[in-house]
Amino acid sequence: MTEVTAAPATAPVSPxxxxxxxxxxxxxxxxxxxxxxxxxxxxxxxxxxxxxxPGPVPRELMAYELGSASKPYAxxxxxxxxxxxxxxxxxxxxxxxxxxxPVHPAVRRITLRHLLTxxxxxxxxxxxxxxxxxxxxxxxxxxxxxxxxxxxxxxxARPRHRxxxxxxxxxxxxxxxxHTLAAATGTPWEVLLHQQVLAPLGLDATRVxxxxxxxxxxxxxxxGTPVPALDTGGxxxxxxxxxxxxxxxxxxxxxxxxxxxxxxxxxxATALTEVxxxxxxxxxxxxxxxxxxxxxxxxxxxxxxxxxGATLGQQAFLGFRPGTGLAVAATATRRVHRADTFVAxxxxxxxxxx
Length: 354
Prior knowledge:
The chain has about 350 residues and is an alpha+beta fold. About 30% of the residues lie in helices and about 15% in strands. The radius of gyration is 20 Å and the shape is globular.
């Protein structure tokens, strides 16, 4: 187990106290590899551990699968393209993706905002996804469903609800957003994400494909058996990002304004502000608040914005408190299960610490 800390003279909470907090939190999580990382105004404390023997590459320098925690990257990309005037939130996806193609009237009304905010009326995954996925559900459910099939499924979809009227979490919708932005800009998604988000923020250890041998964390089933690297097929925008915990902190620091080198590009600065603004409420008495890309909860210390993700053998948590400089990133290499404590532990570091 290792602890890597950095301490400024003006830190409101000492690095030693933060290190103790992370070490205590880590005891609640059972995983072969675990990283808990906190940034306070750009000053970082990183705790690594787990039940597996450490490898030659330090855990905080390994790239972890983010799963659905990839979606804030897609949201920031959309917000920046809007700030640049290249697309609009109210642009209709079908018109950008396949101009003139006959689609269901409800599909015609689906906008980029609907896709990103899970209000498109689309299901979580296409209806024809499951027959090909079920036989390999625990090994490779997405790899056999390529990008062109995602697009075709969207163009022939029959949304269950009128766009903009109900919230339903949808990997399908965010994946369609990715393909739509690629079509609108004439740039492949991976290239577009790198140009507009990763490179400007200095996220050199973030990617959407496995890296060189030995640089990617290995996921595990609940029983500890290793699982292969995730292939997201045509669902790249919804869940393909891989990043080191240190890069995750860099990404979050850009949102909090806590890093010394906050973005100076006006469109990126505008986008970072836009994705933290609440845009919808849902649930009983509208208790649940969402921004374009983040879940938002109230806490005694102010609102927290966060997103979690899971793949076949890994988990990730990203969160921050706007305007405070506090950010939390966490990764673990064990598949989520019913009694899992990972997300609750990471969330507690964000919401319950001053």
